[in-house]
């Protein structure tokens, strides 16, 4: 079997298996911008693949042993790549170092001032807010985000500044590889049931992550979230670690005094502790919902930890207008707004439904929900159904398996039954292709349709819009 690979000395000519994925493409893009000769493969062509090709990457469609160049210095994989993948098997047979995506990202962060963003929810949004606002201030950070900001391939950038902002993925413990100067922890909940059996395992994993913060660095953590407060108690008092809390709690270092919704934006007022300057600031967050406002406050606190003036960073946060799949408006047809959401955990589902309610006005919120993973549905199906009761009506699709094999007895019925028990208007739909027609029959002018889930439900947005625009509607 090939050695695990030391990322820093094997990334001159890397080959990425699954290069078009959200996390993999970002690392590949930064490497290409730094002069590496990048190659890779994916199961299908996409705008992200096109953006990588424009940077000089060689991308093959389909997985084959022949895709692996003779002079490849490493093969980069994520946890989603199975051991029997033909290219991975070939790399092992040829003795090519196999490097996990997290090791490659850790190598990219060497020599910078890294901010690593962790938490069960909100990582992509908070990372994006930091990347956009720091660029607005002219600090030219590097960043790797788990979603595109505006155009395909915009999930990552090599900047000339000293700050590097990246998501820190707890799902497979790969965030243990990073050594950030500032670690952000937004919340701590039980998820990723294939890898964690209990909350104690979750806390232990986050404690390991916090233990990787550089001496003299900072932990930015929610003062409101119960799991985050428990983690703070477990890691408090470590020498060389500055702990900065944010939230509505009276004792928070960056205390939220008010969040005032204004349609699809919010106005946020915070007061900084004396150790951070003691100022009171009011700024705009250009996306809806309290959870996004709190993400912005986390970003503001992290900037302050790196001595970015809060009075400058706060207004710059308004320049963040969203990331693809995070309450992204796909279009309007026949008076109906169609919005896409990546939410797949019950907390995320509830938060996005509450956030979007203001944008619907007097109209109804109609949801097309696709559960993600059998393991997650098995553990949290009841809570998902309860969250969907916040919508006026929901259509629930079959489970999107991603990397998992089916689990006997685990189907979308777990969610549908729970939603019905909580008074929801919920419909099962096993034929994905029937959804546009179904929604066109349900939606009325003024309604808002939310496609929701981490799988390919996102592709239904344009199809629903096309059906709404058709003459027979």
Automatic annotation (TrEMBL):
Q: Where in the cell is it found?
A: Cytoplasm
Which Gene Ontology molecular function entries are recorded, alphabetically? UDP-N-acetylmuramate-L-alanine ligase activity
What's one Pfam family here? Mur_ligase
Domain named Mur ligase central: which ranges? 117-302
Give EC number(s), comma-separated. Answer: 6.3.2.8
Gene3D superfamilies reported in the protein's UniProt record: Mur ligase, C-terminal domain (3.90.190.20), Mur-like, catalytic domain (3.40.1190.10), NAD(P)-binding Rossmann-like Domain (3.40.50.720)
Residue span(s) of domain Mur ligase C-terminal: 325-455
- Give the record's keywords alphabetically: ATP-binding, Cell cycle, Cell division, Cell shape, Cell wall biogenesis/degradation, Cytoplasm, Ligase, Nucleotide-binding, Peptidoglycan synthesis
User: Reaction(s) catalyzed by this protein?
Assistant: UDP-N-acetyl-alpha-D-muramate + L-alanine + ATP = UDP-N-acetyl-alpha-D-muramoyl-L-alanine + ADP + phosphate + H(+)
Q: Where is the Mur ligase N-terminal catalytic domain?
A: 15-111
Tree of life domain: Bacteria
Q: Give the pathway annotation.
A: Cell wall biogenesis; peptidoglycan biosynthesis
SUPFAM superfamilies named among the record's database cross-references: MurCD N-terminal domain, MurD-like peptide ligases, catalytic domain, MurD-like peptide ligases, peptide-binding domain
Primary location group: cytoplasm
Tell me the residue numbers annotated for binding ATP: 119-125
Q: Which family does it belong to?
A: Belongs to the MurCDEF family.
Role played: Cell wall formation.
Quote the NCBIfam families the UniProt record gives: murC
Question: Could you identify this protein by its name?
Answer: UDP-N-acetylmuramate--L-alanine ligase
